[in-house]
Structures are given as structure tokens and as C-alpha cells.
Specification:
Elements: H1 9-31, H2 43-80, E1 90-92, E2 94-96, E3 100-106, H3 116-130, E4 136-142, E5 151-152, E6 158-159, H4 162-173, H5 183-193, E7 199-204, H6 219-229, E8 235-240, H7 244-247, H8 252-263, E9 268-270
Parallel strand pairs: 3-4, 3-7, 7-8, 8-9
Antiparallel strand pairs: 1-2, 4-5, 4-6
Helix pairs in contact: 3-4, 5-6, 6-8
């Protein structure tokens, strides 16, 4: 009788393994969600898509250009409101005709009263601080003690840069009240030696006197001399320092400074 061939256990186990792995792959393929298939643009549709994207980019560029043009227009309109360097008048706390200004500071002995010198120094420093570098200034004190009827900081106007302001502050700090009130000498000196000047601002507390003397100067003669000398139509303004400027408007000091300012279209303030 023919003998039956034995069944190989390894072959059956390997077949089971293969079938199990294949089933697992099928199950995973069915169970895991699958996204949409990738888009494949046909040549015509791809060209249409790129054209739309390009047009959208062009729209964004046109919008940005319009915004930039509007910003430039607004800046030009704002610049028109800023006066040119040679124009005027300018208002920096006080009304100035232009940007070349000389401050005439009374340093006579009477400025020791009521702390007038301290008030003038503080006010002048604040005024200089507020001026932009487009302005040019000089400071002339009168008198310079017994040495001379006046003394200037530079002898010419200079731009109000930070360095020049620092020099001006040092000059103001060194001012000391002494002597008379030679206003005539200081005014005529400035009118003769500062070409192109736009403004003079006088800060004083008293009636003009002769240099190194208590003898009063003739205020009406001074006014006439200044009118003759002021051929460049410099605006002359005045700041009267001391209580008499608010209590006695009939005094010579009040009349002199107020008339000096009105003659030359300047401002006058008494405090």
C-alpha cells in the first residue's frame, strides 16, 4: 500500500502569515481616510489660474502705489504750511519779523532791585531754548560795567544750534548789574553793525542815562536818532522789567519803551 505524504507544518504557517499581513494592509487601506487626489491642472486651466493670480498681484501693487501717492500728496500739503527760511513773521512766544534777532539786555545797577536781573536771565534762556536752529541771534549787554557802554556776545548773529545756545547761556550767566543805562549807545551800535537784521528786542528796567553817569538821556532825542538810523526797517520790540511798568504808565521809562516799540512796529510788554 502506498504511503501518504506528510503535510509540512512550516508551509501552512507561512501561508497564514502572508494572508494575515495582506488582510491587515487591506483593513488599513479601507479604515484610514484618504484626502482628495492632488489637482492636476490641464494646460489651459493652469494658464487661467496663473493669469488670475498675476492680476490679483497687480491689483495689490496698484493699491500700494495709490496709498504712496496719497501719502506724498499729504506731505506736500503739510510742507506748504511751513514758511520758507526768508519769510516772516514768526511767532515763537513773541512776534518776530524774521529770523535774525539781537537781544539788548540792560545790565545797569538798578537791575539788582526786585531780582530783575534774575528774571531777565531766566526769561531770555527760556526764549533761546524755544528758538529752532533756523534762527540767528546775538546778545548785547549794556553797559559792560565801567569798561564800555556795551558788550556783544559774538558781534554778529549766529544760528541757534545747541553749541551756540550753550555759549549764549554762559554769556547770560556772567552778566552782572553795574553802571548806568546807556540805551542810546547800544541801540545805535546794533543798527549800524548788524546788516540784514530783522529784529531787536530790548530788555530794560529804566530810563536811558549817559554811560558812567546818573544823568538822564533825552528819550525823545534817542527816539529821533533811532528813527534816522533804522534805514533797514528793523522791528524793535521792548520788554519792560520792574513793577513801575504796571503801576506808572506816565513814567519816562514806560513812555520810552512803549514809543520805541510802536515807532518800529514791535511788541511791548511790561512786567
Amino acid at each position: 500500500m502506498r504511503r501518504r505524504r506528510p503535510i509540512e507544518v512550516f508551509s501552512i504557517s507561512f501561508l497564514d502569515l502572508i494572508c494575515g499581513a495582506l488582510g491587515a494592509v487591506i483593513i488599513l487601506y479601507v479604515a484610514i481616510p484618504k484626502g482628495p487626489p492632488p489637482k492636476v491642472f490641464e494646460p489651459d486651466r493652469l494658464s487661467e489660474f496663473l493669469s488670475k493670480d498675476l492680476e490679483a498681484s497687480r491689483d495689490e501693487v496698484r493699491t500700494l502705489k495709490a496709498q504712496l501717492a496719497q501719502a506724498k500728496l499729504e506731505k506736500l500739503e503739510a510742507d506748504k504750511k511751513i514758511p520758507p527760511a526768508e519769510a516772516g513773521p514768526f511767532d515763537v512766544g513773541f512776534q518776530f519779523k524774521g529770523r535774525k534777532i539781537v537781544f539788548l539786555v540792560d545790565t545797569s545797577y538798578s537791575m539788582t532791585e526786585e531780582d530783575r536781573m534774575g528774571q531777565v536771565k531766566a526769561g531770555l534762556k527760556m526764549l533761546l531754548t524755544s528758538l529752532p536752529s533756523t534762527h540767528e541771534v546775538d546778545i548785547v549787554q549794556f553797559p559792560f560795567g565801567e569798561v564800555a557802554p556795551f558788550k556783544s556776545l559774538w558781534g554778529a548773529t549766529r544760528a541757534t544750534t545747541s553749541v551756540n545756545k550753550s555759549d549764549a547761556f554762559d554769556f547770560i550767566y556772567r552778566m552782572r548789574p553795574d553802571g548806568g543805562t546807556p540805551t542810546r549807545d547800544a541801540l545805535l551800535f546794533v543798527l549800524q553793525n548788524y546788516p540784514g537784521l530783522s529784529d531787536i528786542v530790548v530788555l530794560s528796567d529804566g530810563s536811558p542815562t549817559l554811560h558812567n553817569s546818573n544823568q538822564k538821556d533825552d528819550i525823545y532825542d534817542i527816539l529821533e536818532a533811532v528813527r534816522r538810523r533804522n534805514t533797514g526797517a528793523v522791528r524793535i520790540s521792548s520788554i519792560g522789567v520792574g513793577s513801575e511798568f504796571t503801576t506808572d504808565k506816565q513814567s519816562d521809562r514806560y513812555k520810552f519803551l512803549s514809543l520805541l516799540s510802536s515807532d518800529h512796529k514791535g511788541f511791548f510788554v511790561g512786567f
